[in-house]
Amino acid sequence: MDGTPPAGRSPGAERGRARRALITGAAGCVGSHLTDLLLDEGFEVVGLDDLSNGQRRHLPWGRAGFQFEQFPLGEALYEPRFERLVAAADVVFHLAVPRDAERLLRAGLQVVGACGRRGRPLLFASSAAVYGREYSRPLKEDSALQLDACAQ
């Protein structure tokens, strides 16, 4: 046994420690705000980002309870590393949005699969903030994107 609690069991409860959240896309606009909120609520947070969209300045460097991992989701090379992060988490928030459609699909499948195997709760979301200040309604998939929407 690798020391991980069985699927469906909370590692935090077993170890008597703060709950641990894994946030993919932690250096993005929504991910960085969620990271701050969860740290304020007493969670330990592992932020994962490949920094292709997110920015290092959005991360709470030096803040107690925060750990950062940098690698791309959806790549087979990093799958064992990602599985370990999910196994150690109590909850996973998948907010990462790779720009490439194929990587986006592989990343989503990797996250859903790992959470399913470990019995971890998963919030899988994206942000409409990428559409920036688009004024036409409703927003459409081909609306102009603004990938630095959090920079303002």
Task: Set out the fold topology.
Layout: H1 11-15, E1 20-24, H2 29-40, E2 44-48, E3 66-69, H3 79-88, E4 91-94, H4 101-118, E5 122-124
Parallel strand pairs: 1-2, 1-4, 2-3, 4-5
Helix pairs in contact: 3-4
Strand content: 5-15%
Work out the helicity level.
Answer: 25-40%
Spatial order of strands in the largest sheet: 3-2-1-4-5
- Give the low-confidence spans: none
Q: What separation lies between the terminal Cα atoms?
A: 48 Å
Question: Could you give the count of β-strands?
Answer: 5
Helix-strand category:
alpha/beta
Give the overall silhouette: globular
Structural summary, described in words:
- 30% of the residues lie in helices and 14% in strands.
- The chain has helices at residues 11-15, 29-40, 79-88, 101-118; strands at 20-24, 44-48, 66-69, 91-94, 122-124.
- Helix 3 (79-88) packs across helix 4 (101-118).
- The termini are far apart.
- The model has no long low-confidence stretch (mean pLDDT 83).
List its salient traits.
about 150 residues; globular; alpha/beta; 4 helices; about 30% helix; five-stranded parallel sheet
Structure, briefly:
With 152 residues, the protein is an alpha/beta fold. The chain has four helices and five strands.
